[in-house]
Design a protein that fits this description.
By secondary structure, the chain is mainly α. Helices cover 48% and strands 3% of the residues. Among the domains are: 67 residues; 61 residues. It has a two-stranded antiparallel ribbon. Helix 1 packs antiparallel against helix 2 and helix 4 crosses helix 5. The chain is elongated, with a radius of gyration of 49 Å.
Length: 184
């Protein structure tokens, strides 16, 4: 028998055996129900639908398929012979550490000549209020009142709003140059 036909034959045989078992089981249940309900006529009809010789053949098919299924050796599909080779496992090499990255450094602004007295180079941590207050102190006001600082701070914002890199006076970057108006 060809190897291509064997799976088909096995499938057909299994379907026939399962169908015969189902048919026999259904007729047996119906015959018993008919007997219990007192309908001898129906019981005989179901008995004739599955005569004793047919039942014996189905029983033999079921028993035979069970015996053959258990007793049949498992046969591998034809192919190259499998050679048992020893497997030696070695630990996987440790992953190489990622290449060292240098921290990203923003380019320093091009230094100008020393800023004029009316310009200020922003340092880390500065804000326009602090710059305005420091300028007022540098101009001679020992402890300027908040109202005076607020007025000068608004002038600093007006003078620099269009030149700030972010365009937002609340966000200034180190290295930016802030113009400081003369009026105070």
């Amino acid at each position: 028998m060809s190897s291509e036909l064997e799976p088909t034959l096995a499938t057909v045989t299994t379907a026939l055996v399962l169908g015969a078992c189902g048919w026999l089981a259904a007729l047996t249940v119906l015959a018993r129900v008919a007997r219990r309900t007192g309908s001898r006529r129906l019981a005989r009809a179901f008995g004739r639908a599955a005569p004793q010789p047919v039942r014996r053949v189905v029983e033999l098919l079921v028993a035979g398929s069970a015996v053959l299924g258990i007793a049949a050796p498992a046969v591998a599909a034809p192919g190259p012979p499998v050679v048992d080779e020893p497997v030696v496992r070695t630990p996987a090499p440790a992953p190489a550490p990622p290449p060292a990255r240098s921290p990203r450094v923003e380019p320093a602004p091009t230094p100008r000549a020393a800023p004029a007295s009316h310009e200020y180079v922003v340092r880390p941590g500065d804000n326009l209020w602090r710059i305005a207050r420091t300028e007022l102190v540098a101009r001679g006001s020992a402890d300027p009142a908040d109202a005076v600082v607020a007025r000068y701070w608004r002038e600093v914002i007006s003078a620099n709003r269009s030149t700030l890199r972010s365009g937002d006076p609340s966000l200034i970057f180190p290295g930016e140059i802030v113009a400081l108006p003369e009026s105070a």
